[in-house]
Amino acid sequence: MASGLLLNRGVLTLGIHCQRVCRNVSVSQVREKKRWMKSYTHLMAKKLKLEGPPAPKPRSLQPHWEFHAEVQAFSSRLQENFSLEALKRAFINPCYLQAEQERRRALGLDSETTALTLKDNIQLSEKGKGFTKSFLSDWCRANFPRLRREGVESVVAHLTSSPVVTYVARNLGIEDLTMSAECPVPDDVLHSTFMAVIGALEESSGAEQTGLFLRDFLSTQLIGKDLFDMWTVVDPMGLLVEELTQRDLPLPEPRLVRAAGASTVLPLYFVGLYSDKKLLAQGPGETLVAAEEEAARVALRKLYGYTENHRPFNFSPLQPHQQPLIQAVSSN
């Protein structure tokens, strides 16, 4: 019993001590946001609505920028053996040099002081354009040997068009390194810069390595792309007749295979094309004429080997027996 009294007394003493300690502790309420944050945020949103978003600033005018280090990092990131001097020249556009000279003249500097020793990328860009078109043409002929010359030209024109090239250039980080008079960089300037990078790579590593670069980054843009989205054919049936005539095959005969909802607002017809009693292709359409044209396009895709289930492109590393082929293609 004595031990129980001692225990209760100890607990009571500890409780009194805790009460004294808690009286000396002051608890203050902490808000998650400051009181001035609401008015400040409202003011900034109102200012953004009135003035609009700030003008974009080139990467070269932002902190932590060093052109030589960025160019060297770009070469290492792509795992290509660039000549740094040629790669630097590829990013310098004529519009940048002109704007820089005008800016220096506006500061009151004399002509000798304002003279720039930098060289633009015009020659590299022209060299890159010529090599790109030549290599892609040979690559298309090698992968689609039955495709007509007009089709090859249309595919190459699509791969070298401004939307495709600028999309690849922006994803490779070329836009941040491009020295241009305007910001953001215009599409034509970015297109020219990408071609200049191709010219610099050919000058540094040779045609074989440049061809592999184009194969990996530009030719891959054909994946999931339909042939007739790039090549506009006005009369597919006439083209099919011409192709079958050249191959000494009987002319195609359209036949209605099946139809649905012919008396409704949304009819559907399937037309099949037969040659020598063999079904070449069939296609759907809201009218018989549209279905016949679609069937002709399907037949042309089969003739040219550009179908949805065609053999995938070979993007694997080159084997020793494949190198002479690429060298022959790139030398044309």
How does this structure look, described?
- The chain has 332 residues and is mainly alpha-helical.
- 58% of the residues lie in helices and 7% in strands.
- The chain contains 16 helices and three strands.
- It has helices at 2-23, 37-51, 67-78, 84-90, 94-106, 111-114, 122-143, 149-159, 162-172, 174-177, 187-205, 207-217, 227-230, 236-246, 288-304, 323-331; strands at residues 253-260, 268-275, 278-285.
- It has a three-stranded antiparallel β-sheet, covered by helices on one side.
- α7 crosses α8 (149-159) and α7 (122-143) crosses α12.
- The longest helix has 22 residues, at 2-23.
- The chain is extended, with a radius of gyration of 34 Å.
- It starts with a helix and ends with a helix.
- Residues 1-7 have low confidence and may be disordered.
Main attributes?
three-stranded antiparallel beta sheet, 3 strands, mainly alpha, extended, disordered N terminus, single chain, 332 residues
Summarize the structure.
The protein has 332 residues and is mainly α.
How do the strands and helices of this protein lay out in sequence?
Layout: H1 2-23, H2 37-51, H3 67-78, H4 84-90, H5 94-106, H6 111-114, H7 122-143, H8 149-159, H9 162-172, H10 174-177, H11 187-205, H12 207-217, H13 227-230, H14 236-246, E1 253-260, E2 268-275, E3 278-285, H15 288-304, H16 323-331
Antiparallel strand pairs: 1-2, 2-3
Helix pairs in contact: 4-11, 7-8, 7-11, 7-12, 9-11, 11-12, 14-15
User: Overall mean pLDDT score?
Assistant: 84
Ends apart, CA distance between termini: 110 Å
Stretches with pLDDT under 50, minimum 5 residues:
1-7
Helix and strand succession?
A: HHHHHHHHHHHHHHEEEHH
Q: Helical region count?
A: 16
Number of strands: 3
User: Radius of gyration in whole Å, from Cα?
Assistant: 34 Å
Helix content: 55-70%
Strand order of the largest sheet: 1-2-3
**Biggest sheet, in brief?**
3 strands, antiparallel
How much of the sequence is in beta strands?
Answer: 5-15%
Helix-and-strand structural type: mainly alpha
